[in-house]
């Protein structure tokens, strides 16, 4: 990709950042090794979920966009991984960062996925440096264990999630 194209792509991505963060509230940013800041997810079916109430499960927040080629590769991997590991306490939420794509156009994709699609998130989570995909992994005790822009591969999923899924849920 030549410099002009790369610069143009970066400008487009940065211009979409406000859409990606719509509904986000100011607050403590997620930091690896620290307690995850609370957030409220609004799923496509309008169900609202509070991140703080998911303690005891391992949570993956995946920020993606339809125009993102790595996202289109990553989503099926995440979905299959979730189907295999959900019985061990894994939750995966795919948060779309594109406010310009009507949800009805995404319904065919959502109909094929087992992971929960989210229309927005209120809280300090979003694409890191405007990059998608971005993933956050939160352990059973509510601590951020991973926060990076870039696609998750099967190797990264196994490296990051298997140890967390083997940990017992904290006692109340």
Overview of the structural elements:
The protein has one domain: Glutaredoxin, CATH 3.40.30.10. Helices cover 34% and strands 23% of the residues. The chain contains four helices and seven strands; from the N terminus they run αβββαβαβββα. About 11% of the residues have low confidence.
**What percent of the residues sit in helical stretches (DSSP H or I)?**
25-40%
Main β-sheet, spatial strand arrangement: 2-1-5-4-3-6-7
Q: What is the N-to-C order of secondary-structure elements (H for helix, E for strand)?
A: HEEEHEHEEEH
Whole-number tally of structural domains: 1
- CATH fold topology: Glutaredoxin
CATH class descriptor: Alpha Beta
Supply Rg. Answer: 16 Å
DSSP E strands, number: 7
At the fourth level of CATH, the homologous superfamily is Glutaredoxin
Structural class, from secondary structure content? Answer: alpha/beta
Amino-to-carboxy terminus distance: 52 Å
CATH hierarchy: architecture = 3-Layer(aba) Sandwich
């Amino acid at each position: 990709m030549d410099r002009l194209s790369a610069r143009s792509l970066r400008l487009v991505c940065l211009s979409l950042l406000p859409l990606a963060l719509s509904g986000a509230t100011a607050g403590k940013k997620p930091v690896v090794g620290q307690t995850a800041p609370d957030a409220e997810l609004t799923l496509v079916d309008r169900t609202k979920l509070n991140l703080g109430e998911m303690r005891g499960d391992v949570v993956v927040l995946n920020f993606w966009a339809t125009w993102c080629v790595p996202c289109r590769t990553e989503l099926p991997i995440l979905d299959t991984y979730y189907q295999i590991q959900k019985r061990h306490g894994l939750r995966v939420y795919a948060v779309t960062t594109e406010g310009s794509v009507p949800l009805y156009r995404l319904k065919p994709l959502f109909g094929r996925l087992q992971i929960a699609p989210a229309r927005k998130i209120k809280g300090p989570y979003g694409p890191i440096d405007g990059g998608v995909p971005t993933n956050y992994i939160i352990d059973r005790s509510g601590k951020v264990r991973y926060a990076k822009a870039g696609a998750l591969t099967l190797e990264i999923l196994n490296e990051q999630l298997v140890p967390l899924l083997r940990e017992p849920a904290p006692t109340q």
